[in-house]
Amino acid sequence: MIEARELTKRYGDTTAVHSLSFTIAPGTVTGFLGPNDAGKSTTMRMIMGLDRPTSGTVTVNGKPCRQHRSPLREVGALLEASAVHPGRSARSHLRSMAATHKIKASRVSEVIEMTGLAGVATKRVAGFSLGMGQRLDIAAASQATPGRSPSTSRSTGCRCGRARCQRCHRRCQCTRKGSASPPAKRRRSSRPSATRWPAPS
């Protein structure tokens, strides 16, 4: 469970995130959409304990991420471009991550299958296409806890005026309250009801 309550982040006179509140339950797929500088990455960084909120709170399984003894066992994350040694294989990279965080080796095989990397798992990462590299990043973020893996990515054509937390199932579905800093121009997005996915076993 990821919970934010009145989450706010300011950098000097600039407000990046303002009074943002949401709850994300395990097993749901949530799209966090907004234009550049809307506060998406800042919110993700606060979830992961990389940035401290100016006010408000955000917790992962009941407490701030940085207070967990083994954070990667609680939540995986893909916030920036990955740093993978080009000479290593995908499986080797994932195995090393699992070993250092006491994650079962069987989980490596699971995420490889889940992300469609089975055919290239033993190949060097240096030869991966952009798409395969992104799959490896997702696999790495998904190793620890299948139900909680924040990630950031650009959304082509997004014109939301504010960062919106959306639960998605084949199409974006907005259901949260709170906001980040809006740009000058914005367009309303539709708000159909959320769709819930079953939690991974």
Keywords:
201 residues, alpha+beta, Rossmann fold, 2 domains, four-stranded antiparallel beta sheet, two-stranded antiparallel sheet, 4 helices, 19% strand, disordered C terminus
Task: Describe this protein's structure.
With 201 residues, this protein is an alpha+beta fold. It has two domains: 1-76 and 148-201, Rossmann fold (3-Layer(aba) Sandwich), CATH 3.40.50; 82-143, no CATH class. The protein is 21% helix and 19% strand. The chain is built from four helices and six strands. It has a four-stranded antiparallel sheet, with helices on one face. The protein is globular and about 50 Å long. It starts with a strand and ends in a 21-residue tail after the last strand. Residues 152-201 have low confidence and may be disordered.
Describe, in short, the structure shown.
With 201 residues, the protein is an alpha+beta fold. The protein has helices at 40-47, 90-100, 105-114, 130-142; strands spanning 2-11, 14-24, 30-33, 55-60, 164-167, 177-180.
